[in-house]
Design brief:
The structure is a homodimer. Chain A is α/β, with parallel strands linked by helices. The first copy, chain A, has ten helices and six strands; from the N terminus they run βαβααβαβαβαβαααα.
C-alpha cells in the first residue's frame, strides 16, 4: 500500500534563501513527504540547498518548478495556505493539527497542497485567494515569526503523525483546483451582473466568499449544481 | 500569571554547529520558551549563531553554560532525553506529544528539561542514563535523522500547544442553526424565483445544496454575505 502522504505537495512561493529550500527537503523526507513544488525559486539546486538537504537531495532533484501558484496547484484537490499573522478579525483559521486530521481521509483519492510564502512577507493576498483554507501555526504572540523550514517541519510532522493514527477509508473525490477557479470566475461575473459586486476592487468580498466555498470540499457534482444556479441567474438578469 | 513554559529548559549537549544553536533559540522564542542551557557548546555567541537566531538573540545572551550534563540538570525536576533511534527493543519510549501533555500539569511547581545530543550521534548512553525518561520524535523509517533545530522545534511546539489547550480560547463562532434555516429558506425562494428550482419537489436538490453549505462551517458574517447576494438576485429578478 502506498502512503497517503505521497499525495501531499509542499509548495514554496518566492523562496529567497536556497538553504531554506534544502532544509525543507530534509524535513519533508524525515516526515515521509516527497513532492516539493517551487514557484519562482532562487537557486534550488545550488550547493547551499544541497548542503542543508543532507540526505534528501533526491527531493530537490525531483522538485517541480512553476512560474505561478495558480499553475502549480491546478491539479490539486485541497489547497491550504499558511499565514503567519492570522489577525484578530479573520475567523476559521485552522491549526496544522486540525488540518492534518481532516485531510488524511481525503488523501487516498485526492491530492492536497500546503503553500508557504517567502521568508519575509509570507503569502500575498493574491496567493491566499487561491487557497481553500488558511492555516496558521500556533506561536508566541511576542515572537511569532517562524523560520520557513521550521514551519514546514511542523506541518509535515502533523501530517505524518496523523497518517500513523488514521487507517482512513477512501472518501470523496474533490474537484480539481482549475475547475474551482472556473467556478469562481463564473460566480464573480454573476455577482457583478446582479450588482452585488462592483467592477472595481471585488477582491475583499471575493476572498470571503472563496473561504466559504473553500471549506465546503466541493466535488465535481457540487460544482455542476452551483454553476447551474449561476447560469439560471444570468439568464434571468439579461 | 507567568507561563508554565518559563519552567522548561532546553539543554543542548556538545552542539557542533553554532548556526544550530541560533536556530534553536529562534524556535524556542517562537514557542514561548526562554531557558537555554548549553553543555560544552562551540561558539554560542558568534556571528553565525546570532544570524540564525534572528530576533531571539536575547535567549543566546542569557543561556547558561555548563561543562557536564549532570551539572546542567542538577536543579531540574523532570529530565527528558531525546533519542533519534529508539530501536525495536527499547520500551516505554514516549512521543513529544505525550511528554508535553503529561508534563504541563507539573510545571506550575516544578522545572523540566529536555536534553538533545549533538548533530551526528545524538546523546551518548551516559547522558541518557541521567534522564528520567526518553522521548523520540516520530519520523520516517527510511530517513529518520532530523536537523537538531527541527527536533527542538517539534518538542517546543508540542509544549506550547499543550500549554494552550487548558486555557484555549474558542476559535470560530458558528452561526446558530435557526439562522442557517432562515438562510436556506431565503435560498430556496431565490432558486425558485430564478427558475433553477421548480415549486414541487425541491427537496432533492435542496438536500445536495445544504450538504455543500453544511460543510462550510458558516459564521454569522458568512451568512450576511450570502443573504446579501440572495437579496441582490431577488431585486434583479422581480
Amino acid at each position: 500500500m502506498t502512503s497517503p502522504l505521497k499525495n501531499v505537495s509542499i509548495v514554496l512561493v518566492d523562496t529567497r534563501t536556497p538553504a531554506n529550500i534544502g532544509a525543507v527537503a530534509r524535513s519533508m523526507m524525515n516526515m515521509g513527504l516527497s513532492r516539493l513544488v517551487l514557484v519562482r525559486p532562487r537557486d534550488p539546486g545550488g550547493d547551499e540547498a544541497r548542503r542543508l538537504a543532507a540526505g534528501a537531495s533526491q527531493i530537490l532533484d525531483s522538485a517541480e518548478i512553476h512560474s505561478s501558484l495558480q499553475e502549480a496547484v491546478a491539479r490539486e484537490g485541497l489547497v491550504f495556505g499558511t499565514s503567519r499573522h492570522p489577525g484578530r478579525k479573520r475567523k476559521n483559521i485552522r491549526t496544522p493539527r486540525d488540518m492534518a486530521a481532516q485531510t488524511l481521509p481525503f488523501l487516498s483519492r485526492n491530492r492536497a497542497a500546503v503553500v508557504f510564502g517567502n521568508e519575509v512577507n509570507g503569502l500575498e493576498i493574491e496567493d491566499l485567494m487561491l487557497c481553500h483554507e488558511i492555516i496558521s501555526i500556533p506561536s508566541s504572540e511576542e515572537f511569532p515569526s517562524l523560520n520557513l523550514a521550521h514551519a514546514v517541519m511542523i506541518v509535515a510532522y502533523e501530517l505524518f503523525t496523523a497518517s500513523r493514527v488514521n487507517g482512513a477509508a477512501p472518501d470523496s473525490e474533490l474537484a480539481p483546483h482549475r475547475d474551482l477557479e472556473l467556478f469562481y470566475g463564473h460566480l464573480q461575473e454573476t455577482l457583478q451582473a446582479i450588482e452585488f459586486l462592483g467592477h472595481d476592487r471585488p477582491e475583499r468580498i471575493m476572498f470571503a466568499i472563496r473561504q466559504i466555498f473553500g471549506r465546503a470540499r466541493l466535488e465535481a457534482r457540487d460544482l455542476s449544481i452551483l454553476r447551474g444556479i449561476l447560469t439560471s441567474i444570468l439568464r434571468k438578469t439579461r
